[in-house]
Design a protein that fits this description.
The protein has about 700 residues and is of the alpha+beta class. Helix content is about 30%, strand content about 20%. The protein has 19 helices and 25 strands. The chain is globular.
Length: about 700
């Protein structure tokens, strides 16, 4: 993944290839290649037609103990005023490189994609200009200085023409990469996720090649938990062998699709005719972080875990090509947050988790930092390394309705929005299409579409089989060894301290995305608040030492803390090893990263040292209290499992399927008089009453 920075060229900031306004990325100086973090100095605000966009970006180099000098293979591009100084458009993109020259491939795409896109947009507008020449000339004549106006500025391309331009740009950029002599893309390449903002139409077009993602956070009264929370909607779908349609397309070229274990004969090869669905992550091929890959029928190459990319010349004949999947949609007032990120973000975080984290902030830069911190912590917990991570967060504010700007431009099709809607539906399965049509019966016809639930899952689950077995063993043994844990360790009643409303809110925010606390009840949440220990530390304090057995899970309330790792075979010189990450907690910024969760659960040695860089304040949850909360959570789940097992429609489910169903439930508290469901609204939630009572009313006759 390639680290990108703004630089000064001839006294002015580097300009985009298409002659637009400055962009945030530029050619990476060699001496900066090993820089760990590159991020916005401060959030930036731009006006794109009827939209106000506040955005920030952050790119962080991964930690690779076997190759500490490996460059960041991510790249990003942010172009304001795309195409001209008068433009109302913008372009945001993230590129995730892979292979030996992956950083060069990502940087090539970053530097060249805008130029190819501008070229093909101009060609398409030239064709539109010929069709609408008379009307455009009339508009120019009404201008005080017609010669100063570019006639193409009056043209907005219809959806189909714009998407064709985008597709050609990606294909041309891919071909140019193949021909470039400064890099070898035979077994290297990059993914590409781009979002083009059509300012005067309050719409966006998403172009996706590979498994990076664009996700939208939208206000929804149906969002679980707090009313008015943001719900995550995918704007792209991962192009990997997990998708059956992509597997069928790839296999048509003669390619094989196998995991590494299957390739080596350690796992059986599945009969595709018996598997008509998308593969389930973490269940079928991915138990040990071993995803299905694309292989030549004639050799053990290229082994790509994705089905589309830029570069990867040897994989291209196997169907791994650069044609993007695209989606064009209108921005609505309830669309609030747009996230564009590489797959390193989504390895262990769901789309919803990412949006939940971003929604806690009013500053997009702080949102970037919080998401990266959470993702990085999970990488450190579940892996011996971390991936490169790049994210762009855009906060959306509509300041003018699109129909008020229609007089400013000419397009060949005014019904373009509905065409875009129909095109988006072609990306959906028949079941999803039926659900979408059902939604439209009680909502606006251009309401949000939904991709399948598979689009919400993490791209991969890299937890090893051994760790998965430990989790299962822990869950099975919680109740049996709970008494021993109490006898050996602390009395939680002695740990209990009252917390202020503000302190509880900060702790609640911190544990919101934790897998272990996601399904706890309100009573259990209050217990966690009470047993959290306030811990003050001085600069230089070693909170955790690598290799020691942990006894606490920590939340940073305030202060900066270094993460250091001593590599295998290296000796600690007293510093704690290489600095790979810095956590920053801040009450003022509502940022409270966590660490220590995994070692606490598995009684495993700490994988890194945490050292206070400044004076700070932590909240600590002792292992004994943690186990008790976990045990209570398991007990609550068992009650729910018994209830679900007694429902006729679930009577044929196996025990493990009932367990999975119970785990998927969240607790929602309703006050007296609140509506749980409303007549006439589309229902997508099943409820089980655990306490209290409710009534039913039906309005209307006949």
């Amino acid at each position: 993944m390639g680290c990108c920075e703004s630089v000064e060229v001839d006294g002015s900031q580097y300009a985009t290839p298409n002659g637009g306004a400055p962009q945030e990325s530029a050619v990476k100086a060699p001496e900066k290649a090993l820089r760990k973090v590159d991020c916005s100095d401060e959030p930036r605000e731009i006006i794109c037609g009827g939209l106000r966009l506040r955005y920030a970006f952050l790119s962080q180099k991964g930690y690779y103990p076997d190759d500490p000098h490996k460059p960041n293979q991510d790249a990003y591009s942010i172009t304001e005023r795309f195409g001209s100084k008068e433009s109302n458009d913008a372009f945001f993109a993230v590129y995730d490189g892979h292979g030996r020259d992956g950083d060069l491939c990502a940087q090539f795409a970053r530097d060249k994609m805008c130029g190819h896109l501008a070229k093909h947009i101009k060609k398409a507008k030239d064709r539109e200009l010929k069709s609408n020449k008379a009307e455009i000339e009339q508009r120019m004549e009404r201008h005080a200085n017609p010669s100063s106006i570019d006639p193409l500025a009056y043209i907005e391309l219809p959806r189909q023409a714009f998407q064709q331009a985008c597709s050609k740009a990606h294909v041309d950029c891919n071909m140019a990469m193949h021909q470039d002599q400064s890099l070898d893309d035979s077994l290297s390449g990059t993914t590409a996720i781009g979002v083009y903002v059509h300012g005067r139409r309050n719409r966006i077009t998403i172009c996706n090649v590979g498994d990076s993602r664009a996700v939208l956070g939208k206000t929804s009264s149906l969002a679980k938990g707090t009313r008015g929370a943001l719900k995550a909607y995918p704007l792209s779908r991962d192009q990997t062998p997990y998708r059956r349609d992509e597997r069928v397309r790839i296999r048509a070229t003669g390619a094989r699709i196998l995991s590494l274990d299957q390739l080596e004969g350690l796992e059986p090869i599945l009969d595709e005719s018996q598997n008509q669905d998308d593969l389930e992550l973490g269940e079928e091929l991915d138990e040990g972080g071993d995803p299905p890959r694309v292989w030549s029928p004639n050799g053990d190459y290229p082994g790509t875990a994705f089905t589309r990319s830029l570069g990867d010349a040897m994989a291209e004949e196997l169907g791994v090509f650069a044609e993007p999947e695209m989606l064009t949609r209108e921005i609505k007032p309830d669309d609030r947050i747009l996230v564009i990120a590489s797959d390193g973000i989504y390895e262990f975080l769901t789309n919803q988790s990412v949006i939940d984290i971003c929604a806690k902030f009013t500053d997009p830069l702080e949102a970037c930092r919080a998401v990266v911190a959470e993702s990085y912590e999970l990488w450190l917990q579940y892996e011996l390394r971390t991936d490169d991570i790049t994210i762009i967060v855009v906060f959306l504010d509509e300041i003018m309705e699109a129909n008020l700007m229609e007089r400013e431009y000419i397009t060949s099709r005014r019904d373009d929005l509905m065409s875009a809607r129909k095109a988006s539906l072609t990306m959906m399965s028949p079941q999803e299409l039926e659900e979408s049509e059902h939604m439209e019966a009680g909502a606006d016809s251009d309401d949000e579409f939904q991709l399948g639930q598979d689009a919400f899952r993490p791209v991969r689950n890299r937890m090893t089989k051994e760790k998965a077995q430990e989790i299962k063993k822990l869950k099975e043994s919680v109740e049996s060894d709970f008494a021993d844990e109490l006898a050996e360790e602390v009395d939680i009643e002695k740990l209990f301290t009252e917390k202020t409303v503000s302190e509880k809110a900060r702790i609640a925010d911190a544990i919101k995305t934790s897998v272990m606390f996601r399904n706890i009840t309100e009573d259990q949440r209050e217990m966690i608040f009470g047993v959290m220990e306030p811990i003050s530390v001085k600069a230089g304090t070693w909170v955790i030492k690598q290799g020691s057995f942990g006894d606490r899970f920590y939340i940073i309330d305030d202060g900066r803390f270094e993460v250091r790792i001593v590599g295998e075979g290296d000796r600690d010189d007293g510093s704690g090893g290489s600095l790979i990450h810095v956590y920053e907690g801040s009450v003022a910024k509502h940022s409270h990263p966590c660490f220590g969760e995994l070692a606490l659960m598995y009684s495993a040695p700490r994988s890194a040292s945490i050292i206070a860089r400044t004076d700070g304040h932590l909240w600590g949850l002792h292992r004994s209290a943690f186990r008790q909360v976990l045990a209570q959570s398991q007990g609550t789940r068992k009650e729910l499992m018994n209830t679900l097992a007694g429902i006729p429609m679930f009577s044929e489910l196996e025990e493990e399927e009932i367990v999975a169903l119970a785990v998927s439930f969240d607790e929602i508290a309703f006050g007296r008089g609140e509506n749980i469901i409303e007549q006439g609204h589309f229902g997508d939630t099943m409820y089980v009453i655990t306490s209290g009572s409710c009534g039913k009313s039906i309005y209307g006759g006949g």
